[in-house]
Amino acid sequence: MCEDILNLSAMQLDALREVGNIGAGNAATALSQIINHKIDMTVPRVAILPLGDVPDVVGGAEVMVAGVYLKVYGLAPGSILFLLPYDSAFYLVDMLMGRKHGETKTLSAMDESALMEIGNILAGSYLNALCHFTHMTLLPSIPALAVDMAGALLSVMLIQLGQVGDHALVIETEFSTESSGVKGHFFLVPDPGSLGTILTAIGVRS
Amino acid sequence: MAELIKVGMADYKVGSSPDTLISYGLGSCVGIALFDPIAKVGGLSHIMLPDSSSARLVENPAKFADSAIPLMLNDILRLGGNKTRLWAKIAGGAQMFTFANTMEIMRIGDRNTDAVISILRELNIPLLGRDTGGNYGRTVELKLDIGIFRVKTIAKGEKDL
Q1: Where do the structural domains in chain A lie, given as residue ranges?
Q2: In chain B, at which end, N or C, are there fewer CB atoms within 10 A of the end residue's CB?
Q3: What are the residues whose beta carbons fall under 8 Å from the beta carbon of B55, sequence distance 6 or more?
Q4: Which residues of A touch B55 (CB under 8 A)?
Q5: DSSP output for B29-65
């Protein structure tokens, strides 16, 4: 159950990485079509980290970011968090709203809606790919947006994991556009009970 | 040399003048500073959850308000602090994301704050300042030389409690 994540085999971790790869690949394609830019993505990182170390993945707890948060509903519930460094969020809004690069300085309500919609589309396409792969139905909640310190936003996910253990299983991918300097981190964090369900669905349950 | 001692999530640290204890990026978590102004010793705790009794296993007592605060108190007394002189100041307990139908887990900030206040009351430690709630993150630091508890935010600037 909860602390099972410390006993995952290399093969299971590889399988989870492949899940992340398929999901993130689909999400990157969707994002690329919306903003009409080529998107590069890293090979997903599957990490089992002490809860307090998770903010280091994005450069520390105090880094200022925009974050779109969604719950995942279905057989394997979890959380999705799409984090953009502050300036990346502005550049992305520039592209979405047809402004010049660097024109956005603060986020209007409309800009925030646009970012939430991006989170929505990314999460939807990520989960869609996962559904096909695992034959489970996974649905995203409506998105919520916050602009603040990375640690504060990540803690929302980490607190839920903290109720059952001291480690987080994090499937993380970094997106970036070559030309416009937009970077983002996409986190999928399965709820504690979901890991076994996912491993069974992809046929690597020990 | 004054040192800057970092306190991570689900951790606590104690120290003495002229060091500073700091914890970055608290959201729904709560930062609890305890300080003895005469001995100039104190501690800073960064708790994630209110109550260890509902947890399935407690590997890390510093994660929960009810287990972290008494442990930190003991460490402060061991450093020469006097319980009758200690004060407490707290910050955090925000709700970072707002959903239309707020789930129970989303109210964790308020539950953390309530738990911390009731534990301080049980321990008879006066709560001299608080900056809790809202929807924004906070970085907190306890300056052990002058006993200032500083709360820094992106949205609302910084203030000393």
Answers
A1: 2-201
A2: N
A3: A163, A164, B49, B64
A4: 163-164
A5: SEEEEEEETTTTEEEEEEE-BS-GGGSS--S-GGGBH
Cβ–Cβ gap B25/A151 under 8 Å = yes
CATH entry, A2-201, from 3.40.605.10, 2.60.40.1120, 3.40.1550.10, 3.80.30.20: 3.40.1550.10
Whose CA is closest to A6, among A166, A148, A140?
A166
- Cβ(A144)–Cβ(A68) under 8 Å? yes
Tell me the per-residue pLDDT of B3-33, one tens digit each, with 9 for 90 and over. 999 999 999 999 999 999 999 999 999 999 9
Are B134 and B125 in contact by the 8 Å Cβ rule? The answer is no
Q: Say which residues have a Cβ less than 8 Å from residue A105's Cβ, sequence separation at least 6.
A: A90
Q: Closest partner residue to B154 among A51, A149, A159, by Cβ?
A: A149
Strand duo B4-6 + B20-26: pairing:
parallel
CA-nearest residue of chain A to B52?
Answer: A163
Taking the alpha carbons of A106, B155, A152, B144 in that order, is the dihedral positive or negative?
positive
Q: Which two tokens stand for residue A133?
A: 């792969």
A83: CB partners within 8 A, 6+ apart: A58, A65, A66, A67, A150, A153, A154, A184, A185, A187
Check A149 against B57: CB less than 8 A apart.
no
Segments of chain B with pLDDT less than 70? 56-58, 100-106
The label of the residue with tokens 């003991």 reads B74
d(CA B81, CA B86): 8
In the residue annotation, B29 being an active-site residue is answered as yes
Domains and CATH numbers, chain B: 4-160 (3.30.1330.200)
